[in-house]
Amino acid sequence: MTIPQNPLLNDRDVEFLLYEVLDAPRLCELPYFADHTRETFDLYLQSCRRFAREVLFPTYRPVDASPPRFEGGAVAVHPTLKQVFQPMIELGVLTAARPADVGGQQLPLVVAMLAGAYLMAANLSACGYLGLTTAAAHLIQTFGDEALKSAFMTRLYAGEWTGTMALTEPQAGSSLADVQARAERTDAGHYLVRGSKIFISGGDHDLAENIVHLVLARIDGAPPGIKGVSLFAVPKRRHERWPEGGRLVPNDVEVAGVIHKIGWRGLPSLAMSFGERGDCHGYLVGNPHQGISYMFQMMNEARIMVGVNAAATASAAYHEALGYALARPQGRPLGSKDPRTPQVPIVEHADVRRMLLRQKAIVEGSLALVSTTARYADLAAHAADPAERERAQRLLDLLTPITKTFPAEKGFESNALALQVHGGYGYSSEYLPEAWLRDQKLNSIHEGTTGIQGLDLLGRKVVAGGGAALMALGGEVEQTIGRARRAGVEPAWCERLGASMSLLGELTMHLAEAGLRGDVERMLRHSADYLELASILVVAWQWLAMAAAAREGLARGASPAGFYEGKLCAAQYWFSTELPRAPALAALCRSGEDSYARMRPEWF
Amino acid sequence: MTIPQNPLLNDRDVEFLLYEVLDAPRLCELPYFADHTRETFDLYLQSCRRFAREVLFPTYRPVDASPPRFEGGAVAVHPTLKQVFQPMIELGVLTAARPADVGGQQLPLVVAMLAGAYLMAANLSACGYLGLTTAAAHLIQTFGDEALKSAFMTRLYAGEWTGTMALTEPQAGSSLADVQARAERTDAGHYLVRGSKIFISGGDHDLAENIVHLVLARIDGAPPGIKGVSLFAVPKRRHERWPEGGRLVPNDVEVAGVIHKIGWRGLPSLAMSFGERGDCHGYLVGNPHQGISYMFQMMNEARIMVGVNAAATASAAYHEALGYALARPQGRPLGSKDPRTPQVPIVEHADVRRMLLRQKAIVEGSLALVSTTARYADLAAHAADPAERERAQRLLDLLTPITKTFPAEKGFESNALALQVHGGYGYSSEYLPEAWLRDQKLNSIHEGTTGIQGLDLLGRKVVAGGGAALMALGGEVEQTIGRARRAGVEPAWCERLGASMSLLGELTMHLAEAGLRGDVERMLRHSADYLELASILVVAWQWLAMAAAAREGLARGASPAGFYEGKLCAAQYWFSTELPRAPALAALCRSGEDSYARMRPEWF
Asked: How far does the CA of residue B259 sit from the closest CA of chain A (Å)?
């Protein structure tokens, strides 16, 4: 039994998304992307996918098996990571979507993210260092002054140093209002930072000579709550003279402990102490007390990135399960039980195909969703027309909690199905699906838990601007329905999606009214169910768009026809099994069902 | 922050199930259970739960951290397991439900299983050795001759030796028709067994001096397929003379390899070779070629046991998450964002209560389901009236695939929620939820995968005897509805459950007609969805029974009232969020939706 090499993502699917569903090359009509063409997109994609398959994926298992070691106060990562780190930087991962004036390639985010998905599917941990580094650089690029940019941003984008996000504290968790780290201004201009942080991914390692932590802390005398939290760049080693330079000296940043994560095992998650000896220099990013708003302005990108992580992790496992199901003989078709006939590959069993098609629907639906969202990010930043930028920004804001959550939550289910397809072998660490299942679980937790995304969607995003984002989404869905009708897609799907969108709109009005009456608890009680409902609809929209493109492909005789037929089967699956869940979910949200609202802690 | 000691199961809930929902002491009116009373039930329960909490649970983490070692051809288990093995036998676990004439206590299975659930929640692997041993002894008790009983059964029930089930082969997996192990009859009466088996739990260890493997193999000249498979008792060490005795000598049973399981890490899963040197003696159990039917007659108990494993594993994690949520301060209530007020325990957040109530609904629904099924097993074996035994057997047969699957599948979701409640800490192996999540995943695979359970339910159980089992279930549900109405339970719940049962009945008729027309593929296409639908309904029935008992408790002023209020909240949750999924699932099954039926392997 030979299981084929795992492709991580289906190249044809990526091509389909970019060129048949989303028409990404149209972005090149915008000035920011003017130097690009489909050819430059493909060059970048091709270099990333080749590196992912040939170099990075072979490192996954050894890195997963031997997590970083913490010895003598420092973290040593797996030696293999050192071999792939520099080549990944040379691929251009850190600056693919950044502007040329900071050394970037100005690629659309939609292209950069899909290319990045190959790398994530190959080794999520290795990508983690780079994702954090480019995000930290971007924060400084957007909000930092020239001194910060020249001291930190340039080195981060060059991959000489790496970055972290040091937000969470042990006593506060998701509640950033309760950040207690302190910063005291000195006459020299820098601040002395003091405090404890936890879950700092990549907080220490031996991949680069220095690490820049972006730390949330309160300046002495700041107001309480989130309005008193500032953002600081705090290097592991500081230049002797600020900002001029000089040799690097220790900056009183220490590793307090290592968290033994169950996945992403190449990327250490650390408890960190800043300023235990009173000598930790931090440099204010932007204005005092604006730290949370800076972080939130960066959050969209980080949350879409989580969606890509999740989609990529589910994709790798799906392709592994598919390869296994095509190769593994076991049992015989229903009604053909003659034991003297040869066994058939398990893909021939309907229930195995069900598990594979469900994975396909989730994985490819997730990839379409993150691509669509990334494209709105591209338009929000670079569309020519200010009104179009605003509209794209609204759609981006609205879709972000869904893009963060759906691939994480349903991806976890998809990863579990990949394990299940492997049967008893799936329960063994000699096969890969269990590792991806562990990796996936983080995505519903970091960058805002699923519960927080639900509150964000219903409490902020759909009601902002008088529901403008939801109306914009309705317009987009209508456009897709029009395209689908023209392409000859099943009319019932178009009708059902239209009806479901109306249902969502009415439900949202109903809930918003409760909020306007001041009953915020009632409004947000079913925010998790609302998020699930909205996710099912948004992914149905994606599947309708893919079905339209598939019908168009079949109509023009593009090949292979089987690729399009598979897309139509997966779309049918989503419209037949997931979309019909919408009415019951909407009724639940609307009813205000109060079981867990009235449940008291002592009744459990 | 102090997290309370995990109770593993809620004692009040166990008491509620046995004495308020199921009226288990009525079983003592039957001759087989005549020596028992509520007091003897409680004594056994109390000794098991105390041992589980005080002795067994503290072994869980060290055993999980250091799986068995395979050295010099033999498996050495964690030393802690040696310390708990004998005391567990002394608790009476092996023979609790067995008849007095084999040294048993003749306890009802429903009591033995709930007591066992504490032990499983404390350390699933440690329980695995005993579960396999008592099952092997029971097989020999039921089908073996006197020689087998005196040679093996007695020692197994005494815990001197342990047992295994050696069914699966590398090339066949779930397809037992393709078993290739051979057995050649000798003039001395024993057989020479030869073949490879895989996934043999407890296949080797150093807990006892000998191991009895129950091996499926083909006698030379046997017919092909499942009708040519026989069952053999194959000891690791055999007595020099059979059946008389003599010293133990090696029996040519070797460990071929260790499978690195992701959970149940105290119980080795092995690849085994039988008869590589042509000297492996096996002793036929029962008649030739009847092996599969013997295994299937034992399967009910094994599958219910999987359900108990799953419910127990979900229960331990639920109680851990509940303890954490009650203790962990973070954030503030909606509409009370003043950062100068203290943070509240996370149980105060609606979405955390949602995750906890969902776990409660799954865990306690699962425990009720396994208890109800075990009670039917008690009646099927020991009811006075043959018609009642037959009726109970039908219900047992019908409920078995659901009892095997629901706690495993929804338990996995529940275990994931327990991790999620712990936030970032849940993603760390320093907290227990991730370990239980790993343990749980096996339960959807072993003893017949979820896919196989769906085929069993729809293809065999609901259609057997002209649908007699489903009619019997309808009668039981009607009885519960009557009790619920009298107790003053929400009438809408009663109506909804009644309507859903009618829906299930009509759907089953519709699908059975397709089968009668010879279209088996069409009939069974949505067997996974059918199993999910039936599970939702059966668990709703359990929650209606618990709601009725809760209302009765409140009416008579039993305490604590909060316990009953919590039950009513969980019942409400199930009736409001899960039961409303039934119509869409039924419509899906009925429609014959063909996305994965027509999907071709090359279209993926």
From this structure: 6
